């Protein structure tokens, strides 16, 4: 190793990029939050359509809106809980 500034700069640049692990983990967490949000929307739509058919078969006509409200609320609560958990981790 020499004390020449050009040699030191060349040696540091040859080590590769300086990546902060905390920054990478933060980006991965944000990516996970976006992925979970998309997954929650897709799963909510699929769950609603599938269980809507089950509600039509098993629940009397006048109680079907209440069954659908309960279903939508449950899906919403689960997706919000996952997002809150990730947002707390990001802070």
Return Rg in Å. 25 Å
Quote the beta fraction.
Answer: under 5%
In one word, what is the shape? rod-shaped
Question: How many strands in all?
Answer: 0
Report on the structure:
- The chain has 91 residues and is mainly α.
- The chain is built from three helices and no strands.
- The chain has helices spanning 5-13, 21-58, 64-90.
- α2 (21-58) packs antiparallel against α3.
- The protein is rod-shaped and about 85 Å long.
- The mean pLDDT is 82.
Record keyword descriptors for this entry:
single chain; 91 residues; mainly alpha; 3 helices; rod-shaped
Write the layout of secondary structure elements.
Layout: H1 5-13, H2 21-58, H3 64-90
Helix pairs in contact: 2-3
Quick synopsis:
Helix content is 81%, strand content 0%. With 91 residues, it is mainly α.
């Amino acid at each position: 190793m020499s004390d020449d500034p050009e040699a030191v700069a060349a040696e540091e640049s040859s080590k590769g990029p300086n990546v902060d692990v905390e920054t990478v983990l933060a980006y991965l967490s944000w990516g996970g939050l976006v992925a979970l949000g998309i997954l929650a929307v897709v799963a909510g739509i699929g769950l609603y359509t599938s269980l809507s058919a089950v509600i039509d078969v098993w629940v009397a006509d006048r109680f079907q809106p209440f069954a659908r409200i309960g279903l939508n609320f449950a899906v919403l609560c689960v997706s919000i809980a996952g997002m809150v958990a990730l947002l707390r981790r990001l802070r």
